């Protein structure tokens, strides 16, 4: 089987080479616990990857893959590289330990799917998983595997979730200094071109009926307990606060 780090690096290579759909799912239970996941669909690359994919993955490109592993297992493989990172970067990676990664690749069906998921006791525990992944890419070989550099998906913001049974909030606070530095990145133009054809979808499931949502683009499920909001990935990267919204629930 392909080494875990090689598989994860290739998954994010797919994300940067073609249009992808990222779906951020949150399932909240009555007691505030729940499950968080980010699903990445890179199947469009499978239809046109051809020789390029074979060069990246070698013999593994010809195999069907359906594998599940934890970041904790991955970090064990890369422990020698992790100790070379700054204390801040190591702390960021620590947040990923309980995440489970499931990857499926089927060349015949032109399918490539990856899910990063974890359970939580409170939504306040959650952070922006894609930004944290950008820290992972700083490990040996990570930046080289990514044509957009080691800061892919780092949108220069701090994301917070809150839920108290009456209201839910998703709020990204922008770090203007980091955003300005990213704007000067030499890969910025290439990034914009790729991100323009990718989507970032929020799909949140609540235990109560929703009274109102501050974002007028929100779509409701029939039972009004789930909302779906679709953005361009450009918004996620360049205007992360555009994805902010509040939800109020019926009593």
From TrEMBL:
Keywords: Signal. Residues 1-23 form the signal peptide. It comes from the Bacteria. This is Lipoprotein. It comes from Flavobacterium calami.
């Amino acid at each position: 089987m392909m080494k875990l780090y090689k598989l994860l690096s290739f998954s994010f290579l797919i994300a940067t080479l073609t249009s992808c759909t990222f779906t951020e799912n949150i399932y909240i239970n009555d007691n505030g616990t729940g499950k968080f996941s980010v699903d990445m669909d890179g199947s469009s690359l499978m239809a046109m990857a051809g020789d390029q994919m074979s060069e990246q993955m070698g013999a593994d490109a010809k195999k069907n893959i359906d594998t599940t592993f934890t970041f904790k297992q991955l970090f064990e493989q890369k422990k020698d590289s992790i100790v070379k990172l700054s204390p801040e970067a190591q702390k960021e990676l620590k947040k990923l330990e309980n995440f489970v990664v499931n990857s499926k690749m089927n060349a015949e069906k032109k399918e490539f799917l990856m899910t990063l998921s974890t359970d939580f006791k409170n939504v306040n525990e959650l952070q922006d998983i894609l930004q944290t992944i950008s820290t992972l890419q700083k490990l040996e070989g990570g930046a080289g595997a990514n044509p957009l550099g080691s800061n892919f998906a780092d949108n220069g913001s701090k994301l917070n979730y809150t839920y108290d049974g009456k209201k839910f909030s998703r709020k990204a606070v922008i770090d203007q200094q980091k955003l300005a530095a990213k704007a000067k990145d030499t890969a910025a133009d290439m990034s914009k071109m790729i991100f323009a054809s990718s989507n970032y979808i929020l799909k949140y499931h609540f235990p109560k009926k929703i009274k109102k949502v501050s974002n007028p683009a929100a779509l409701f499920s029939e039972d009004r307990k789930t909302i779906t909001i679709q953005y361009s990935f450009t918004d996620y990267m360049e205007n992360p606060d555009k994805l902010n919204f509040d939800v109020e629930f019926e009593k």
